[in-house]
Amino acid sequence: MYETVRVLHSYWAYLALLILLFASINAVLGFSGNRDFKNKDLRISLFGLIFSHIQLLIGLVLYFVSARFAMWSEIGMGGIMKDSVSRLYLVEHPIVNILAIVLITIGWSKHKKQETSKKKFGKIGLFYTLGLILILSRIPWDVWFS
Predict the structure, then answer these.
(1) What is the pTM for the complete model shown?
(2) 54-98 pLDDT, tens per residue?
(3) Neighbours of 139 (CB within 10 A)
(4) Residue 74's domain spans which residues?
(5) What's the burial of 131, exposed, middle or buried (CB within 10 Å: 0-12/13-18/19+)?
(6) pLDDT per residue as tens digits for the range 97-127
(7) How many domains does the chain have?
(8) Biggest alpha carbon distance in the chain?
(9) Element (DSSP H or E) covering residue 98
(10) What residue spans of 66-92 are helical by DSSP H?
């Protein structure tokens, strides 16, 4: 089961990142171009939200079925924090990515309360881009491309 979830988490990440990048760029271009916020823009942003949430759920399942999870009881917090690889997988990657999904969700929620298209694009552009940057900062790139 672990291997299946790990592969799913890895491949879904490509799709989620691509859609999130597209949603961020769309929002920034809409903001800077003073476009009207249309159904197409709503759907692009919604897909970014949905795909990132699905990625989070897959990641949480992977976290708890991973053999690394047992390290919490084996070597404890001090041992995990001393080992950079364990710290990345067990602390940094999950916490930063949860924070990123929270920011994306805040952006989605705040855009709905805005009256003008420019403000809608602004909220989505700001929060989705911040979330994307956080996600990109904690991807284990050396493992991802090998």
Answers:
(1) 0.91
(2) 999 999 999 999 888 888 888 888 888 988 888 898 999 999 999
(3) 16
(4) 2-144
(5) buried
(6) 999 999 999 999 999 999 999 999 999 999 9
(7) 1
(8) 55
(9) helix 93-112
(10) 71-74, 76-82, 84-87
